[in-house]
Every structure is written in C-alpha cells, then in structure tokens.
Amino acid sequence: MDPTSAKLIGAGLATMGMIGAGAGLGILFGNYLQAAIRNPSAAGGERVWLFLGMALTESMGIFALVVALLLRYA
Amino acid sequence: MSFAIEPMEQFMVHKVVDIAPINIGGFMLDMSITNSTVMMLVAATLISILLAFSSRGSLVPGRVQAVGEILFDLIDNTLVTPIIGHNGKPYIPFVFTIFMLVLFMNLGGVLLSVGSLGGQEWTFTPTAQLAVTATLALLTFLSVIVIGIIKNGFGIYKLFVPSGMPLAMVIVMVPIELISFLARPLTLAMRLFGNMLGGHVVMYIFGSFVVMLGAIGLTGGIATLGFVGSALSLSMVVVLTGLELVVAGLQAFVFAALATVYLNEVVNLGHGH
Lengths: 74, 273
Hints:
The complex is a heterodimer. Chain A has helices at 3-14, 17-38, 40-43, 47-73. By secondary structure, chain A is mostly helical. The two termini of chain A are 19 Å apart. By secondary structure, chain B is mainly α. Chain B has one domain (35-267). In chain B, 65% of the residues lie in helices and 5% in strands. Chain B contains 7 helices and 6 strands. In chain B, strands 1-4 form a two-stranded antiparallel ribbon. Chain B has a two-stranded antiparallel ribbon with strand order 2-3. Chain B has a two-stranded antiparallel ribbon with strand order 5-6. In chain B, a hairpin with a 2-residue loop joins strand 2 and strand 3. Chains A and B meet through helix 4 of A and helix 2, helix 6 and helix 7 of B. Chain A: It holds the Pfam family ATP-synt_C. Chain A: It is a multi-pass membrane protein.
C-alpha cells in the first residue's frame, strides 16, 4: 500500500478512539444531571468533581485526536 | 480560484526579535523573542494589570476588582480549600498562578486576534505548543514530588502503597501505581495541548469552508448554492468561537484542579482526607 494513503487511513482509524470519549462524556453528564435533579442542594459541591471527571474522560479522546493529527500532518 | 489549506500554519513559531545565541557551557541558548514569547508576555502583562487593580482592596469592589476577586474565589473557595482542606492555604498562590497564566494564554489565542501585521501572523496560542504545556506540567509534577518529600520524608512511598492492602497485592499494585504516577505530567501536558490544538484546527477548517464555498458560489448558475454552505460555515465559526472561549476557561480550571488533586495526595498523605 502507498505509505501516504496508509497514513490517511490510519489517521481516520485513530479518530475512532473519540467514540469512547463521547459515550463516556454522555454517561458522565447524564448521571450528574440525574443526581443533581434528585438532590439539587448537593449539586454545587460536586461540580468540581464533574469537571475533573470530564477532563479525565475527555483526555482519552484528545489522545486519539493528537495521534490522528500527528499521522495526518507530521 | 483555489488556495492551500494549511491548518497547522497558525501554530508556526517564528522569531520577532532576533538575538544571537548565547553559548553557556557548550549549549547554544537561543533567547530570541518569538511570537509565542510575545503572547506569553502579553498574558503576563494583562494578569499583572488586572491583579494590580483588583488588589487595592476597597470594601465595595469595582468592576475590575470584582473580576479579580471572582477568579481568586474560584481557586480558593471552590478548589483548593474543599479539596486539600485548611492545610492547602500555602499552595493557593501556586495553583492561582498556574491557573491565571494558562487562562490568559488560552484566551489570548481566541480573543487577541489582530490578524497579520507587517507580513506576520500575530494570532498565536502558546498553549497549543507541546513544549509550553509540557513545561507547565513538569513544573507541577516536580513541585508535587518536592513538596511530598519535604512534607513526608521517606514516607512518600505510601503514595504507591494504598493503606490496608494485603502484602501479596503490593507486588502487583506498586508498578501500576508507579506507572499511573509517572504518566501524570504526560496526560496533563497532552490534555491542554490537544484541546487547544484541536479547537483551533476545527475553527480553521470551518473558516476555510467559508472562503472555498464562497468562491464556488461566485461562479454563478447552480453553484450559487455555495453561498448557503458558506453562510452555514460562517455561523458554525461563530458558534465554535464561543465554544473555544468555554474550552479555554474550562481547561485552565481543569489544569488547576488536577494540580490541586495531585498536591492533595502528598499534603494529606495517610490522613485519608
């Protein structure tokens, strides 16, 4: 296979890692909202952990994106 | 009509003021001022001005003072004190400094869009460079190690041996904990870098759609429909600019939050806080 096309296919495949990050973020925010609606007075205190969880979940998708961009442009 | 799409061109570092390399013990140290340095200096200047105005300490805060107080309150009362507890007071300046620097460097890339002046592109995000984010992450990581050793001495090994673990599990768990500990600066750097890079690349690509579809629309006939796509892309760029502002603030907060969590582990080691 031509190396350039192999790189392009690889970059496309690498972006699939972001599927998991998307699903994870959905679960995270969905569960936070569910808990926040059940007990609104406790929601404010857990917002820091929501964003921390978001950062940790999202970082997996970001790694996939970085790998894809490296394959595409580097 | 065609033009080259180069989404990575905006991340090119180029020299603004050329300074001859200095030779320090065989290492050539290039101290030239680049566009990255310029944006960092702009960020530092803006932070200094904001904090100088907001730390005058009048009882009823004005607008500028309110901004400074809200930012400080965000780090003090919603981040450091709830996570570390009252032992965390000495670390507020460190976390606040990192937060403000990252925030202003992130926002500078989105807000300070002066375009090209004198044949050079001046819009630049220093945090979209892995070198900058890796330096910040390594600084945080090494600070955590140094503070941990000062606070706990040799007891820092407890970081890798969770309390109440059976002896047989130690052999399995210590390498895992060690790897996850050593991966921290890498993930910290990559998260900020990837978020900034990804956001700006997407903005560039939608911006190039505006021009490309507009150029197709100019050819007339059925191709006039290109203007519809162009307008849609333009509204997408507006939405993405708003999203980038959110991401810039959020990533600065996340960087500070993770630094706080890492500090908490060594400050409250063994206290189960």
